């Protein structure tokens, strides 16, 4: 088995070509990952610059059978990420990927490996267990045998879940009296063009404080989030980023957006063309997605999560959506998964 380092534009193109070809017969595949891989190759954004990386083509007997990227972020320096990998259906290739990872760990004095984290949770986390549905906008999507192979190789499994339910202006049964008292204490507002840059500072700070104990989260810089939103902002709707405040202090946020993947063709790569489709056909999108939903620990039991969700529902109530979807949630996160079970069933 040969691991050929991608050091030239030619080899990088082969990497991207393999990823796309690997799913050519999958009717549910849409490509959200190769733009991120290309960003890492170019190494010009804060997200890419803050990482040590090695990317490889994997060949056996002269035939390309896989690709893999190994990442170490400066804020997650005790973990080696096996990311953006694809390989033909054989556990042998997964085993070779792990052997190479352990060689890197030994050289870097690292003792932990995470499989399926694509640089940061904001860019992709998880391996697919089924391929019966198209992934929601921006979500990871992989071959189902990956999860089985790495589990057989001794990796611990962390289960992720998500929710989808019919949307019929589903509102919380909150009395007007409760709402009035609640809004006397706390304020809710959405990001605007005028508040954009300062709100991204709040977004970074809240992410780092709210998800600090998350097993796969590591701190982001505001420069990284500014770079992320440079492209993402074109796919946000008015009211997509909602903040909860107490006395002017941000204490939580909720990020939602339409599932623009519904407009993408089979195998399509996220691009400027997707944005043009959004402009022309936004009313054809029938689902919205709750992407992030976070509250500072000291405010979680004070109704803030409910308030944020109520504000989100208020933002979408006049839009033509028929379904609400969520991003992934760690199954053991009882606060979030329990809320999902309550409102999605």
Describe the protein.
- With 345 residues, the protein is of the alpha+beta class.
- The protein folds into 2 domains: 2-157, Aminopeptidase; 164-343, Gcn5-related N-acetyltransferase (GNAT) (Aminopeptidase), CATH 3.40.630.
- It has helices at residues 9-22, 34-42, 46-49, 91-108, 145-152, 176-185, 196-210, 222-232, 272-281, 304-316, 334-343, and strands at residues 2-5, 51-60, 63-73, 80-87, 113-115, 160-161, 164-166, 187-190, 241-246, 249-258, 287-295, 323-326, 329-330.
- The chain has a 6-stranded mixed sheet, sandwiched between helices.
- Helix 1 packs antiparallel against helix 2 and helix 7 (196-210) crosses helix 8.
- The protein is globular, with a radius of gyration of 21 Å.
Short recap of the structure:
The protein contains 11 helices and 13 strands. It is an alpha+beta fold and 345 residues long.
Q: The CATH topology of the largest domain is what?
A: Aminopeptidase
Please give the count of helices: 11
Helical content band = 25-40%
Shape: globular
The Cα radius of gyration reads 21 Å
Q: How many domain units?
A: 2
- By secondary-structure content and strand pairing, the structural class works out as alpha+beta
Mean pLDDT comes to 92
Oligomeric form of this entry?
single chain
Strand element count: 13
Q: What is the level-2 CATH architecture name of the largest domain?
A: 3-Layer(aba) Sandwich
Could you give a short account of the major beta sheet?
A: 6 strands, mixed
Q: What is the H/E string?
A: EHHHEEEHEHEEHEHHEEHEHEEH
CATH superfamily of the largest domain: Gcn5-related N-acetyltransferase (GNAT)
User: Whole-Å distance between the termini?
Assistant: 48 Å
Question: Which residues form runs of ≥5 with pLDDT under 50?
Answer: none
Strand order of the largest sheet: 7-12-11-10-9-8
- Beta percentage is 15-25%
CATH class of the largest domain: Alpha Beta
